[in-house]
């Protein structure tokens, strides 16, 4: 028995099955650099300009990342420096009228230069519902995690723009720290 | 502070935990004045509902006094006595603005954990599993309430803590079920389940003009409560061959205009299907014993409304063909409490709605473990155990 082939088939099967039920995995792609993409779309009851401004702001991006990492602006060259899982990734923002892309400026662990780390696209929502926001994140994590991360970032973005705050239970979760 | 914690299946304890504090600018912190058991808690106490973690502070039905407010809280004042719906709304999102508060789009910190199952996550709730937010619950001396201005409702003078307490969950849930039924004067409404929610659904149907309210259960003390406090007719389903036939017979062959199901996934019943459900649930082949839900669908008249208030997981053997061929309208939701609490407090203050009889047992928070045991076992006629931290 080719154990490797069996294991590979099992992993592909699980991934395919998970793609049917887990957030953002349907369109997830495992790239040649080992990074995965997760994509989600939500409607946010705010103008596109507010959405895009938020997604350019390192302070806002840090709040959206929360426990996942942080973002700061490099004083020397203006690049955004993302801290993700202990790694630093530098990006340059590419702005279009209806989108913003954060593209890596140099190779980093699991991400080659020129990779679109985070892409946020907007379109008007019908019936004055605001803006349809499509967020795609690429990260050196599994595609399931990338999909969940994309969902979490969008959920927090919507909460922040709509209510002015991001829901949290930290540092007061209902449960004991040892069970986290 | 002291709080009731979930440690595992059928394992609760009162422990000392960290005090809550304001975390977000719209937060409020309450000193809990009264907090009560709810039948839906038993689903995770018994291990049928996943997503709990060791040490979780439970409880979601409460009233309290405001002791701290965040910097952006405008209306809620320190010292106010308030009642708080169990689901947390933000007041700003599409769903809150459309009065569907339990569907709030912004208050679930663990929404990503819930999305795989629901597709579109619900709002957060106190003390009710981590996919539902992981918020600390109310069986404690203090509780943090997000978005205090839209979730805290001042209790009128003259309305006691216990009367107000049930306007947190049991009453608005029951009232919503009756509201779902679009009751016309003289309608007949059947209510399956005579727990706190079912009794409040029956009382609400009365308030809305139902001509007859028929409550179905098996426990004599609960059926007596339905007769004595709600003025309902009752059916003990263990004493009749067929609840459907009794309902059909007593309504001139028409059937009830609406049926409210207020039992949920641990429903009891009779017949082969109940045995099959119990076996499948024990083997974890399904999460629900849905006898009352099926009975509700079968009992309702053609073209009627079935309002589902009981908490369910994954139900199989659901008679969808009956819903289709009888032209039923099926309505359900976790409670949109913020829609109803102000008018409910008015009903209570005016003496039009009695909630206090639900509080069959009152005790200090330190006795909450025993309180849950009595409540779970339905011992000593227990409808609800109320804890006073």
Structure in words:
Chain A is of the alpha+beta class and 180 residues long. Helix content of chain A is 32%, strand content 29%. Chain A has helices at 3-21, 48-56, 58-65, 143-163, and strands at 36-44, 69-73, 80-84, 87-96, 99-104, 116-124, 131-139. Chain A has a seven-stranded antiparallel β-sheet with strand order 1-7-6-5-4-3-2. The longest helix of chain A has 21 residues, at 143-163. Chain A is globular. Residues 1-32 of chain A have low confidence and may be disordered. With 389 residues, chain B is an alpha/beta fold. Helix content of chain B is 30%, strand content 21%. Chain B contains 14 helices and 16 strands. In chain B, the strands form three sheets. In chain B, strands 3, 5, 6, 7, 8, 15 and 16 form a seven-stranded mixed β-sheet that branches. In chain B, strand 15 (359-364), helix 14 (368-377) and strand 16 (384-388) form a beta-alpha-beta unit. In chain B, helix 6 (170-180) crosses helix 13. The longest helix of chain B is centred in the C-terminal third of the chain and has 13 residues, at 337-349. Chain B is globular, with a radius of gyration of 20 Å. The model of chain B has no long low-confidence stretch (mean pLDDT 95). Classes of the chains: A alpha+beta (180), B alpha/beta (389). The interface between A and B is large, with 30 and 41 residues.
């Amino acid at each position: 028995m080719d154990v490797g082939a069996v294991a590979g088939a099992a992993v592909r099967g699980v991934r395919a099955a998970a793609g049917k039920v887990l957030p953002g995995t349907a369109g997830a792609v495992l790239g040649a650099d080992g990074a995965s993409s997760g994509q989600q779309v939500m409607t946010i009851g705010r103008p596109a300009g507010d959405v895009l401004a938020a997604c350019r702001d390192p302070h806002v991006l840090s709040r959206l990342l929360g426990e996942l990492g942080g973002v700061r602006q490099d004083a020397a060259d203006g690049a955004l420096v993302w801290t993700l899982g202990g790694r630093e990734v530098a990006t340059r923002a590419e702005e279009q009228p209806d989108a913003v892309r954060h593209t890596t400026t140099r190779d980093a662990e699991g991400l080659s230069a020129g990779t679109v780390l985070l892409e946020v696209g907007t379109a008007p929502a019908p019936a004055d519902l605001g803006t349809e926001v499509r967020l795609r994140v690429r990260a050196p994590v599994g595609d399931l995690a990338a999909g969940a991360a994309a969902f979490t970032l969008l959920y927090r973005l919507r909460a922040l723009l709509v209510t002015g705050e991001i829901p949290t239970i930290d540092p007061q979760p209902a449960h004991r720290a040892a069970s986290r | 502070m002291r709080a009731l914690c979930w440690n595992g299946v059928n394992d609760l304890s009162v422990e000392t935990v960290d005090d809550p504090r304001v975390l977000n600018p719209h937060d409020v912190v309450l000193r809990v004045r009264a907090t009560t058991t709810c039948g839906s808690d038993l689903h995770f106490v018994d291990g049928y509902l996943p997503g709990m973690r060791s040490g979780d502070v439970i409880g979601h039905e409460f009233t309290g006094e405001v002791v701290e407010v965040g910097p952006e809280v405008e209306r809620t004042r320190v010292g106010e006595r308030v009642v708080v719906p169990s689901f947390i709304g933000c007041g700003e999102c599409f769903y809150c603005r459309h009065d569907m508060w339990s569907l709030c789009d912004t208050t679930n910190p663990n929404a990503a954990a819930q999305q795989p199952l629901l597709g579109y996550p619900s709002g957060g709730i106190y003390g009710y599993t981590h996919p539902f937010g992981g918020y600390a619950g109310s069986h404690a001396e203090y509780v943090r309430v997000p978005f205090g201005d839209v979730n805290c409702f001042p209790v009128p003078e003259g309305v006691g803590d216990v009367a107000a307490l049930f306007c947190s969950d049991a009453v608005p849930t029951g009232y919503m079920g009756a509201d779902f039924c679009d009751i016309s004067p003289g309608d007949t409404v059947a209510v399956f389940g005579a727990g706190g929610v079912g009794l409040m659904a029956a009382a609400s149907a009365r308030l809305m003009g139902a001509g007859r309210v028929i409550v179905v259960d098996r426990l004599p003390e609960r059926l007596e409560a339905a007769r004595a406090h709600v003025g309902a007719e009752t059916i003990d389903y263990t004493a009749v061959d067929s609840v459907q036939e009794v309902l059909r017979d007593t309504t001139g062959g028409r059937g009830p205009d609406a049926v409210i199901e207020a039992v949920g996934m641990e429903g009891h019943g009779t017949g082969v299907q109940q045995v099959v459900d119990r076996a499948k649930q024990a083997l974890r082949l399904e999460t629900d014993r849905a006898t009352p839900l099926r009975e509700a669908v079968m009992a309702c008249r053609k073209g009627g409304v079935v309002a589902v208030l009981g908490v369910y997981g994954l139900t199989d053997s659901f008679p969808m063909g009956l819903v289709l061929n009888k032209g039923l309208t099926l309505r359900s939701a976790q409670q949109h409490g913020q829609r109803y609490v102000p008018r409910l407090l008015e009903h209570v203050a005016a003496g039009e709605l009695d909630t206090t009889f639900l509080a069959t047992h009152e005790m200090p928070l330190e006795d909450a473990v025993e309180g849950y045991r009595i409540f779970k076992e339905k011992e000593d006629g227990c409808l609800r155990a109320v804890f006073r931290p």
